[in-house]
Amino acid sequence: MRTAKNWKDYIILDTSDGEKLETWGGVSLVRPDPQIIWKTHKKHPLWKGADGHYHRSASGGGKWEFRKKLPESWNISYGNLTFNIRPTGFKHTGLFPEQAVNWDFMADKIRNAGREISVLNLFAYTGGATLACAEAGASVCHVDASKGMVQWARDNAGASGLSDRPIRWIVDDCEKFIAREIRRGRKYDAVIMDPPSYGRGPGGEVWKLENCVFDLVKLCEGVLSDNPLFFLINSYTTGLSPSVMGYILGTVLTDKFGGEVSFDEIGLPVQSTGMTLPCGSTAIWEGSK
Known about the structure:
This protein has 289 residues and is of the alpha/beta class. It has helices spanning 46-49, 100-111, 128-135, 147-159, 174-184, 209-220, 242-257, and strands at 2-3, 10-16, 19-24, 27-32, 52-56, 62-66, 74-78, 81-85, 118-122, 139-144, 167-171, 190-193, 198-200, 206-208, 230-235, 260-269, 276-286.
């Protein structure tokens, strides 16, 4: 497993019975996590005294319980990057800290490429990968269907001192945007995608990642440059293993571009046990040059 172990402002203190106890820049939160099926003893005092606790509802969804008044938002940092954190109505905080292991990989590839790199970041959320690539020197096209998430990402770029970097901020459906980029003849040296597990299109059509991911990767092949650097897919879909995503990347890309494919779970260290909490899966294709 690849572990995001370089955080200073984010810590998982403990995990038990479907929940994780975390600190985000000193703010303690308890949030649900379906991976945590073990029921170990909750020894840490913050289990009972956390600043915020997200409670799942039996009918779906849930709500926050705050034990003290928190600021509407606050910042945490990872290296030179700064992110705006705020609890949302869907248990999330605007950042997936486990993705830092992928940010480090991308930044290293870009810094050592020896050439200018253009990156297409799809389903780009609040911009963690966008900022990591831009800070490493790439030009980035950041695409997400949510106007609010793109604005959040722009705010994160400002907080990180990256507002002047060559980043295109696009609010659009990712598949439709890729199709238009192909027609325009625009090319990218790297593609990042972190698509949702499930969604509905504007016409009510159901979108399930495991049914669509191959076609999506195949479509993205059309925007890759002649000498692509990497293609990274991340997934939180339980039924989509890292090896399946790796196989898809291999079948679509290696015949045309060569290179190699790797895949694994990604996770975060847990302070109380010294072990790693699995948080998602990533497959990566890397070019041979």
